[in-house]
Specification:
alpha+beta; binds adenosine-5'-triphosphate; Single alpha-helices involved in coiled-coils or other helix-helix interfaces; 2 helices; 9 strands; single chain; five-stranded mixed beta sheet; ATP Synthase, domain 1
């Protein structure tokens, strides 16, 4: 029997990353990993920084996902996120440079540095660099 499918939309401020069916979507919620199948009870929650997986039959797509919200209904998963990219679109050199800049800021004694911003930038860079393992 064919696997039941749910529609998944992933939207960032600059693009629609995905608008298609999936047999399962797995993402990093603020309170832990979430796996959603067709027919899931409705809920809305916030998302953490992490990796998202979309299973569609034999196919598995992986992207980064940086915060935002997910709105789940039995037939549709809508993800609104600050930033997301497919693994093949990650520019490793850019992520390495972002990591170096963030580390320099975190090691600096300059009182004007926004440390929270630097910590978040470092987290994004590390997720981009480590996401190839998934
Ligand atoms: P940077 O300092 O290099 O801009 P950032 O973590 O501040 O990194 P974001 O604000 O998360 O960047 O993303 C801004 C835009 O740039 C988004 O569209 C995101 O997908 C894209 N982007 C950022 N870093 C990379 C990367 N290493 N490879 C591909 N796209 C990236």
């Amino acid at each position: 029997m064919a696997e039941a499918k749910i529609r998944v939309r992933i939207v960032t401020p600059t693009k629609e990353l995905y608008n298609d069916e999936a047999t399962m979507v797995i993402m990093r919620g603020s309170e832990g990993d979430l796996g959603v199948l067709k027919g899931h009870q409705p809920f809305i929650t916030t998302l953490d920084y992490g990796v998202l997986k979309i299973k569609n039959g034999e196919e598995e797509l992986v992207s980064t996902l940086f915060g935002g919200f997910v709105d789940v209904t039995p037939d549709l998963v809508t993800i609104l996120t600050d930033s997301a990219e497919w693994l093949e679109d990650i520019d490793v050199q850019r992520a390495e440079e972002a990591k170096r800049r963030a580390e320099e800021r975190l090691n600096s004694k300059d009182a004007n540095i926004d440390f929270l911003r630097a910590e978040l930038a470092l987290k994004r860079a590390n997720i981009r660099l480590n996401s190839k393992k998934y």
